[in-house]
Amino acid sequence: MPVSRMFMNGYRCLACSAYYEQDFSGFLCSACGGNLDISYDYPAAARSFIDGLDDGFRGMFRYQPLLPVREPDPSFPLLVGGTPLYQASRLGGLAGLRKLYLKDDSRNPSASLKDRASAVVVRRALDIGAKVISAASTGNAGSSLACIAAAHGLQSVIFVPQNAPPAKLAQSLAFGARVLAIRGNYDQAFDLCLAASEEFGWFNRSTGFNPYTREGKKTCAFEIWEDLGRKVPDRVVVPSGDGNMLSGMWKGWCDLEAAGLIDRLPKIDCAQSNASDAISRTVLRIRNNGETTADWQEVAVEAVHATTLADSISVDRPRDGLAAVQAIIQSGGEAVAVPDEAILHAVAEVAALTGVFPEPAAAAPWAAVKQLAGDQLIEPDELTVCIVSGSGLKDIASARDAAGQPCVIDPDLESVRAAMDQQPLPLIG
Ligand SMILES: Cc1ncc(COP(=O)(O)O)c(C=O)c1O
Question: ∠266-268-273 over CA atoms, to 5°?
Fold first, then answer.
């Protein structure tokens, strides 16, 4: 890949708009504590970005001109990104939708979209010479960081709630991370990771704190755009806990617009559980009360007591909540919160009708789409993309709850006949 220039300009605070030059080494805005957004010299980056699309380089670093990393790295040891976009006609048909797509990001190295963020953070760590990277995680960010760090020979320290799904913990351990399982929830793990990273000088990847995570996640939008023949979908539905995946999705489309490559933006809808709905509540409060968003510093993001079974989106206080709320409001998207039962049902439905196996959080977008369709908030011909953000293999207990149990039989034909009589195969249309 021929590009070697970095087009990143600096950092802008999403709350108070304070600006920091490229050499700023903080994570949050020094003036107000808000989250930072990375900006680029878009006109200059656009030409290199377009040229880079034709050079056959696979994975997310093909978008280097719009990434905050110093060199393109053809030798990046794992393929991150480049995941498939599937048309899901039979699934869409259930909700009367003719143009439903699934972006299957479970096909990343650690089986979640989080790898996009980890890849950029690890590249940044290499650029600044950091050797140990830490992260607070509900499970996936940790296993993702452990995976990408292992591939580069870097150390990782992961802070997770003790009750994170065993598969996610096992992944992190197998990748050689130091896993600190907290007797507490994700929000406590987050605060502890922050304090420990400051104390021990670790580079903290935590979502909604490190501005580089959003940059990695936005590459998911670039891929959707390319796979749709450089077209913009009508809406993208993103599972949301901290809100960073969603703000990353919005950033991707905004970058394409700023680079002059698209002339309209999609709606970005959040998909949450109604047992972890801080972002949805905030959007609804703003809309229902007619609150002004002229000054984002004045906008309070709700906190809740999260209890959802969709562990990846179980968050009390969303750490990138303001950016997510901005994205939904600015894009004209919907804030959707669905019951956990609908999420579990969606796991089985997505898997059985498409062959893509989502973990609960990753099935939430489909549950949200059905709710939107039921409320007539989505048109049958709207081109809608659901983000499948993590694999169902990460949470087998939920998958079993969603899909039921096998029929245990004796090893003879008579037992097969009895089982088939008892429960005939469903008719497939
Ligand atoms: C599979 C999956 N989906 C969705 C999310 C939500 O992302 P965010 O917390 O940035 O909103 C996560 C976060 O851990 C996740 O692991």
Answer: 160
C-beta atoms surrounding 317 within 10 Å: 17
Query: Any idea how long the chain is?
Result: 429
pLDDT at 3: 43
Please tell me the distance between residue 389's alpha carbon and the centre of ligand 1 in angstroms: 7
Ranges of H-type helices in 165-241: 166-174, 186-200, 212-217, 219-227
pLDDT at 429 over 80: no
Q: At what angle do helices 321-331 and 244-258 cross, to 10 degrees?
A: 50
- How far apart are alpha carbons 172 and 125 in whole angstroms? 19
Q: Which residues line ligand 1 (CB under 6 A)?
A: 112, 114, 138, 140-141, 207, 239-246, 312-313, 359, 361-362, 389-390
Do 191 and 162 touch, CB atoms closer than 8 A? no
Ligand 1 centroid – CA 55 distance (Å) = 31
Sheet with 235-239, strands from edge to edge, namely 85-87, 100-104, 384-388, 235-239, 267-273, 335-338
What is the arrangement of strands in the sheet containing 36-40, beginning at the earlier edge strand?
Answer: 19-21, 8-13, 36-40
Give the mean model confidence (pLDDT) for residues 365-387: 98
> Mean pLDDT in the chain?
95
pLDDT bin (cut points 50, 70, 90) of residue 72 is: low
- The helix/strand/coil state of 319 is coil
Residue at 203: amino acid letter: F
Q: Which residues contact 177 (CB under 8 A, 6 or more apart)?
A: 142, 145, 146, 149, 150, 156, 157, 158
pLDDT of 1 above 90 = no
pTM above 0.90, yes or no: yes
Other Cβ atoms less than 10 A from the Cβ of 408: the count is 7
Q: Which DSSP letter does residue 423 get?
A: S
Please give the number of the atom of ligand 1 that sits closest to the Cα of 240: 11
Residue linked to tokens 């549950």:
367
In ligand 1, the atom with minimum distance to the C-alpha of 137 is 14
Helices (H) and strands (E) in the chain, counts: 15, 13
**Which of the listed residues 102, 312, 317, 366 should we mutate to test ligand 1's pocket, taking the one with most ligand atoms within 8 A of CB?**
312
